[in-house]
Design a protein that fits this description.
Length: about 300
């Protein structure tokens, strides 16, 4: 698989699997475990605290000597300071979402950081190429968290046909079948988020993890379209109440306030009533808790068998 080897060489990893930069979830421990397993672990900077991000990077480096990256959501606080920490710490790669990272790309590239923006359209993918991105992540609406409108099946091949840099597929990928399908669509590798929620090294509350393990194909819902920021999460008292409120006369300000603190309530407290449990449509394929390294080797073994002409 020449294309996947190209991505591995670019990032210095064994397997072309990136761990999703899940807000308030992807910490040093999870990132290091994924990197130790041969993939590219990602630390989320969504908390907006530059000192905390620096500490997380240092902790990951104490846990692994393998490459890892940072995810920067471009709709948060202290973006300039966080971007500077990423450059100063010279992490292997940065993934970005919810915005255009062009202003930071020269600084990151000068520091030797590979820049891999998440894109939800061909137009944005072309813009990122012009801005100097090393690769892009084409993420379909099946993913958990913030989502676009195009499905992974439709988006990935079109982005692959549009740009010449490596394309990483994301959204609805949790096993070797999804990996193999992504490669057949033209991708050089995959980004996986929801499957890693069930990793032993993932520190989410046990109640959150239990929800993921119990979920099926129809367990998720997309809310937030009214405010222009659609988010996919597991159906819960909060998500159902929010979805209902979107079609009432509630003000946009009050609607936005409804969501404040709900992800933390899920991740830290496992709050069944108020928590927002982010997860993708692929949750039904996540059936057991496993070490991150075992998840990676299992996915790759199944994918290689399929791509080499073997049966599932």
């Amino acid at each position: 698989m020449q294309r996947t080897e190209k991505l591995c060489a670019l990032l210095g990893i064994r397997y072309p699997i990136l761990q999703g930069g899940m807000a308030h979830i992807s910490d040093a421990r999870l990132a290091a475990a994924v990197s130790e397993g041969g993939g590219l672990g990602i630390i989320s900077a969504a908390h907006g605290d530059p000192e905390r991000l620096a500490a997380e990077i240092d902790e990951a480096r104490a846990l692994t000597d393998k490459p890892f990256g940072v995810n920067l959501m471009l709709r948060g606080d202290n973006l300039d300071a966080l971007a500077k920490v990423i450059a100063e710490k010279k992490v292997s790669a940065v993934t970005t979402g919810a915005g255009n990272p062009a202003a930071y790309i020269p600084m990151w590239r000068e520091a030797g950081v590979k820049v891999i923006p998440v894109v939800a359209s061909c137009t944005l993918a072309k813009l990122m190429v012009r801005a100097g991105a090393d690769a892009v992540i084409a993420e379909g609406t099946e993913s958990g968290g913030h989502v676009g409108e195009l499905t992974t099946m439709a988006l990935v091949p079109q982005v692959c046909d549009t740009v010449s840099i490596p394309v990483i597929a994301a959204g609805g990928i949790a096993d070797g079948r999804g990996f193999a399908a992504s490669v057949m669509l033209g991708a050089c590798g995959v980004q996986i988020g929801t499957r890693f929620l069930a990793a032993e090294e993932c520190s989410i509350h046990a109640a959150y993890k239990a929800r993921v393990l119990k979920a099926n194909d129809t367990s998720t819902i997309v809310t937030g379209r009214r405010l222009g920021h659609p988010v996919r999460s597991i159906k819960s008292p909060f998500s159902r109440a929010y979805a209902k409120a979107e079609y009432t006369s509630i003000s946009d300000e009050d609607l936005e306030q409804m969501a404040v603190g709900t992800l933390r309530a899920a991740v830290v407290d496992g709050d069944d009533k108020r928590g927002c449990f982010l997860a993708g449509q692929i949750s039904g394929l996540v059936s057991q808790e496993q070490p991150a390294a075992e998840i990676i080797t299992e996915i790759m073994a199944q994918a290689e068998k399929l791509l080499c002409g073997g049966e599932q």
